[in-house]
Structure formats: structure tokens, C-alpha cells
Sequence to fold (590 residues):
Amino acid sequence: MWIRVLGAAAGGGFPQWNCGCPQCRGVREGTLRAQPRTQECVAISSDGDGWFLLNASPEIRAQIESFPPLHPRAPRDTPIRGVLLTNGDLDHWLGLLSLRESQPLTVWATETVRAGIVEHNAAYRTLARFDGQCVWRRLRPGRSDQLMPGLTVEAIAVPGKPPLHLARLLAVGDEHTVGFVLRANGKSLAYFSSVASLTAPIRDALDAVDVAFFDGTFWSSDELIRLGVGDKRSEEMAHIPVQESLPSLARARCAQRFFIHINNTNPILRDDSDERASISSAKWQVARDGLEIHL
Amino acid sequence: MWIRVLGAAAGGGFPQWNCGCPQCRGVREGTLRAQPRTQECVAISSDGDGWFLLNASPEIRAQIESFPPLHPRAPRDTPIRGVLLTNGDLDHWLGLLSLRESQPLTVWATETVRAGIVEHNAAYRTLARFDGQCVWRRLRPGRSDQLMPGLTVEAIAVPGKPPLHLARLLAVGDEHTVGFVLRANGKSLAYFSSVASLTAPIRDALDAVDVAFFDGTFWSSDELIRLGVGDKRSEEMAHIPVQESLPSLARARCAQRFFIHINNTNPILRDDSDERASISSAKWQVARDGLEIHL
Fold:
């Protein structure tokens, strides 16, 4: 399995357009030991030929251009065989609308996530210009599906909540957020980029795979409040803070493990922060744009 | 007046994610005398302090980061005082959804364009989380409005059509597309990035200003068909081809004039093409990312 991180940041990216916090300022000015990151998107392939994207960030055009194996090989073409969505947050699917230009596309998502996009947004009709332009394949938590010969995905239910823009439009169900276990050639990857709390099925997945990606949005629960840039605690945004998840995650049995979906305010973005040292001690790393893993 | 082109390409950008035409291939491989371009977005300022964006491309995050005067100067802040939309095409407004993070925003558009975005897309609710988050100011063709002290915009009706994703949802009216004449400090800019046909008011505007930007989407009417990458003529997409507009545009009296919203297939993107030589002879240039004009 070939894994390429196209973007490792949470919604807004790092730096964030309207953020002048010390970290965003520092990375813009080059005075911080940290590298900029675009919004979360990961490409995976089991054969190096066909690719699947985990989430579709608004920055997908530049992300595709940054990685030659994703470039077209004919006048109208793409090696992208499908996009898998973890939830309906805007930073996870707005990029779908940039994958138009009459290119057939397959999107894997739960029915809840599909409905939130397709049934409530006229903009989505750009992907429904002809029959078969966008084919939706339903993910069901607990079930394993074949993405292509030799590559499967199992969706794992994850505690989450509906995205803010769908509040009161969608029923509160249990399919708002999923994680993935992808398997190919005897190797496996667990992908949980949005996690409100650590459940037994998530822990089991982290013990059973070779590589894991996990929600690294916030370091602490009151991070935004303390910096004066927001009034919500991480729990209200359905993200378990790293400070809280780390003791359990340190015991996970997967060999390579990365935090992803990192918010611009999270101190683990700084190569020389105490918080980065803590996660390094626990044998976790921070995903960055351009990171590649070959299994 | 300070003008900065943040992106000069049509929807899809140059290169386009799923396009392997000779030009997209050549610019990716570095074998073409052409520079990559992101999707259309232009920043203007009359005082170097507050800025207005003409259209909001899906790539707006990287475009803002590319130009330091647009960076925040406080923990949560933006010098962007407003966004002006020429029409409701996705490549012109998807970027609005990336200008969230609870930042107050002012958007100038016709009522038709506003309704197409606000009333038909749940995703838009990300900009309606609190009263006053996104304030819409109505543009009316033929009327001049003050954007900020010393800077005015006059909207000019332009022949156009509703965006494809709104077909059958919006009534066919005459406010689907506008151009702008912006005036400050005795200087003026005409901006027409989507033009189905050259009308008298457009010609008058091009004669009356110091700088003009004009629709350079396609060189020829059958460009997509001839390349085998599409089945529509430029007229069906509400863009007058440069080949057809150039004889009239050559006579425009503005001193500095640029084609913008250039499709990846348009040969004027190549610095050494015959088509580029034609427009140079007519004293027109091709806008590129990073171009700056000070008036």
C-alpha cells in the first residue's frame, strides 16, 4: 500500500486566512519551526496505478497537482478511482465540487453524509450533469467493501455530530462520522481524522493495523478560548483533545502512527514544542503535507 | 488604485486536474513557455489598507497567503473589506465558503446571484452562524455604489446565462452576470471576466477607464470540440471567443488591457503562440497570477 498525505491541517489550514495567532504569524514570517499545511486529504493506492482519496479538501486542485501519480494520462482522465468521506464537514467535501469538468467520479460515504451534500446543495448539481457522473457507494459501519480488486475498506462508526451548517436539517443519527480500516496485500491502515471520543472499536482498529492516522485537531480542550480566537471547547466541536487521547493512544499496537487534521492553534505543529516532545515520547508523529508511507 | 491578480485562469485552473491536453501536459512537465495559473480572483485597494476581492475562487486560501497585504494583523482579523461577485458560477463563489471561521464578511452581488447561492445551498449556512456574519449588499446594473470612502463600483449589465447547476431553479433574468467599473483617486478599472457578447455599455466602459480586464476564456468558438475535451461551443457557455472580440477590443481606448479567466485550452496562455502575438499586436496582454498594477 502506498500512502501520500496531500494535506494534514484541519479546516482553515495552517496558516488560516484570518488568523494572526502566534503560530500562524510565525509560520508566515518564517520565524517558527513549523511547516505550512493544507487541509486534510490523503491519497492511497494498492497498485500505484489507481488511487483513492480520503476526504476532498477545498484545496484539492493544488493537492492533486503536487503529486504526479494523480495527474491525468490522457486528454480527459484521472487515476483517482474514488473519494471516501469520513463525514460531512465542509473541509472534507467542498473539494468534490472542484472535481467536475464532466469527469465520472465515485464517492464512498454513509447515507447520512451523502444526503447532507446531495439533497441540500444546488451546487452539487455540477456533479449531476449526466447520468453516472457522480456515483455514490454506501458505506455502512461494520461492513467491509471492496474498493478495487485487492483493496478493501471497512467503515467504523465514530462518535461525532452533524456539521454546523446542517444543524436542524438532518436528523441526529449515528452515521455522521466514520473512520476507515483499509486493507491491501496483507497490510492495513486505520484512518480516524475526526473522533469525539475513543471507543472500543476504534481502539481495536488501532491495535490491528500497520499504520494509523488519528484526530489531532486540538491539543487541549480550551485551546481556542485561551488564545482568544474562539468560544468553543474541543468537545463541543466533536474532537477529543490530544492531551486526553494520548495516554490511551500511547498503548496502541500499530507500528507507525500519526496525528492528522491539525488545527492551526495546536502546539504539536511546532517541531520544538513541549507538546511535540510529549507525542514523540508516546511514539506518535505529526502528519505533514508530502509525507509518504510505503507498506 | 492598487490591483493585484491573485488568479487569472478560468474554472479548473491551468493545468486542470483531469486534463492531459498538450498545454496542461506541457505546463506540468515544464516543456511549455507558459506559467501555471490559479482560478480567477483579483484584489484591489484604493488606500493599500482595505482590500476588495473581485470574485472568490475555490483556491482563495492559497491566493490570500500569496499576497501579504491580505494577511490578518490581529489574532482574528482580515484587511478584506468585501467580495464582489460577477456572477454565480462556482469558480467565482465557492471560495466564500472558505472565508468562514466566524469572520464578518461583506459580499456585493446582484439579487439573482445572491439568491442562487444563499437560498439553494445548505453549505452557505456556514456563513450564517451569527447575525451579521455575512452581509449582502445589492448591486444594481447602472448604479454606482460606494465600497468605502474614495472607492466606488458601478455594476454594468453583461449578457450571460445562469450557471449550469442552477438551470431550472432560477428564473432567467437579466442580472445573472455583471461587470464592474471601479473608480478611486481619479483612476478607473473596468472588469468583465465573463462576457457572452460585446454590448455598447461594455464598449463605453472600455473606452472610459485606465485599465481593463476582459473575458479571455476561449480563443475560438470550437476550441473544446477540436481538442476532443468537450462538446460545447464557447457561445453555449456564454463566453465570446477572443478571436471574435479582438477586432473590437483592439480599438478600446484604455491604456492597459488584459485578458483574464483564461481556460487551460486557450493558446494565448503560451508566450510563444501565434495567438499571443495577435493579441500583443492589438495591445492586449494576458493576465497572470502575481501581476500588479499601480494607478
